[in-house]
Amino acid sequence: MAPPLEHGEHIPGTTRRSLLAGVAALGALGAAGCSRVATASTTGGGELLDRLRAAGVVRLGIAGEIPFGYIDKNGELTGEAPELAKVIFKRLGVDRVQPVPTEFGSLIPGLNSQQFDVVAAGMYVTPERCEQVIFADPDYQMLDSFIVRKGNPKGLHNYKDVVAKKAKFATGTGYAEIGYAVEAGYKESDILIVPDQVAGLNAVEAGRVDVFAGTALTTREVVKKSAKAEATKAFTPIVGGKPHTDGGAFAFRRTETNLRDAFNAELRKLKESGELLRVLKPFGFTQAEMTDLTAKELCGG
């Protein structure tokens, strides 16, 4: 965490960023996020990590999206990215994290205008975003999956199946899956656009559509209590004629390569030890979402 497209703009591989549960609680913390953060570094590689250690706190830009980064019903900061941030920054000598809630589209501008120190929102790494910020290596990868009726009666396993079998297709507002379906040959005007995966599940259960497309994580979570629908096995969409896998990561100001590199070093240790999965598992992530993708690969080399 994918939403804006299933993790941003309407281009392949972007990040879905709808503001889901937790948004209401963000307002209560909004004022706390208005104070200044450490000023921009001017020396080579940046000095922000030293300043964060001295201050004892790092401010995280979040977008109120479950399961990526949000405020829970008790007013506590949680989500896969904030929980991972707590672990890594503790190892880097920064004891506390503080949320700065904002809309997803304001995360990169907010980072670059120093409203917070790092983006911790499960943001997909895309070439367009790599021109504005630098990314750590992805802490998760994300494949797609479908919500279908129990037993998958139409045998829908990928976007080509949806086209070939003339299935009634739905996905979420601004989701990247719109582009994936269109690339497979589905007419965009025939796609039913619904607000989110819950509305997609309802559409499938009611028989209004045959299939709803979303990320593997969100589809498998939303069908858990459904007696009428199930999630298909995760699959890789095709973009530009090639299999495409999205990856979500922390973002930093372009001047702060020292902080990014130190973060990456700790992230690699967590991956090698298996602790990364332990941190992310409570938010629905599985071994299938673990990845060795690099930011360089997703930025386009």
From TrEMBL:
Keywords tagged on the record: Signal
InterPro entries for this protein: Ectoine_EhuB (IPR014337), Solute-binding_3/MltF_N (IPR001638), TAT_signal (IPR006311)
One Pfam family it belongs to: SBP_bac_3
Domain Solute-binding protein family 3/N-terminal: 57-286
Keyword Lipoprotein (UniProt): no
The protein's name in its UniProt record: Ectoine/hydroxyectoine ABC transporter substrate-binding protein EhuB
Organism: Streptomyces pseudovenezuelae
